[in-house]
Amino acid sequence: MKPFSCAIAAQQAGEDLIGTAGHFQTYVLIECPMPWLAKAFNSSSIPPALCQYIQAFKAKRSVQFLCINRGVASTSAQTTVLVYEREALAPSFAAKAHKADWFTGQYRGYEYQLDSLEQVVSCLETHWRNQQQPQQSAKLDPAIYQQDILVCTHGMRDQCCARFGQPFLEMQSV
Domain coordinates of the chain in residue numbers? Predict the structure, then answer.
């Protein structure tokens, strides 16, 4: 018997798979060494203090933490942290917004280069503190002015990501 695949069932039903990931107020993408377990932040390369911070922070806020691998061999020992925060929509626009508006161009991004994963908690604490003090934020936070597309290829988490995400990613890098 063939294993069930939600992505194949959705395609057969004529549904679009683009934008089917959950919607969060904030996304925090942390470049982490591979390999990853199915629950990536349980991997042995992730510092326990970071795992504890993530669990505590998720209980307080609509945030999704994700491990990323940018698919390039890095000669740098640095760790990249990307924070995308949903910008507040004006009430008139929010009432008219549809699904496409939700995930295109409505996030403000910040990029941090750290020396190690052990510095991520401190970096994020500084980031959140600066967001509460806008006059400081303009001076300290390096805003990202680009659009990114995230493609999951983590087959340990979801077989569909490996089956469909990897070929899609390879097509984009040609």
Answer: 23-147
